Amino acid sequence: MALTTPPAPDFGAPVDIARPSPETLALLARRRSTSAPTLTSPAPSSDELQTLLRLGARVPDHGKLNPWRFIILEGPGKADYARSIEPFAADQPAPDKALAVLAKLKNPPLTVAVVSHIIDCAIPEWEQLLSAGAVCMTLLIAADAMGFAANWITDWYAYDERARALLGLEPAERIAGFIHLGTAPEPPLERVRPQIEAITSTWRRP
């Protein structure tokens, strides 16, 4: 069943953010990435993808810089990109493994490359990079909420200069993540999670 996503509020309109959402809490409590090579059709439709991108762009963004952009990889274009970068696997530290992990890119029916670009201004570079990461995470959550499965990956082709150039990245741009989208053939198994007590402390003045 198609889900209806509310439109974005008008600029300057009050935004009701205090409304409890048990459904959101339940989704976050069970959120789990799906292995990218196993992702299959259906993927989000064109309209659903536009909704995902709109939601992904509603992240914290100090200075309202929009220090990120999207590149869509799908259909013949995605297959052509994967074929084009296959020869570059031979130059990686583990060539056979580098070639094998391209299944993470080839198999999913739809991929969104989130590209981080740093804007020279008073806002620290670190905060701009974190904003791009927030876009990636929001896309994962929104895809789950739509009933799809997703995985956030970089891998070697996010860092290979030739692979980046084929995507049209500028020298100063980086791949924050390839967000692979589709449908899970079966529910993924839960993995080990951190013990919150072991990674949490309360600051007190010495």
Architecture overview:
The chain is an alpha+beta fold and 206 residues long. It has a domain at 105-184: 3-Layer(aba) Sandwich (NADH Oxidase). The chain contains 7 helices and 4 strands. The model has no long low-confidence stretch (mean pLDDT 95).
Features:
single chain, 206 residues, alpha+beta, NADH Oxidase, 4-stranded antiparallel sheet
Beta strand %: 5-15%
CATH class membership of one domain: Alpha Beta
Mean pLDDT: 95
**Separation of the first and last Cα atoms:** 56 Å
Strand neighbour order, sheet with most strands: 1-2-4-3
Write the topology of this structure.
Blueprint: H1 22-30, H2 46-56, E1 68-74, H3 75-85, H4 95-100, H5 103-106, E2 110-116, H6 125-145, E3 149-153, H7 161-166, E4 174-182
Antiparallel strand pairs: 1-2, 2-4, 3-4
Helix pairs in contact: 2-6
Please give a quick description of this structure.
With 206 residues, this protein is an alpha+beta fold.
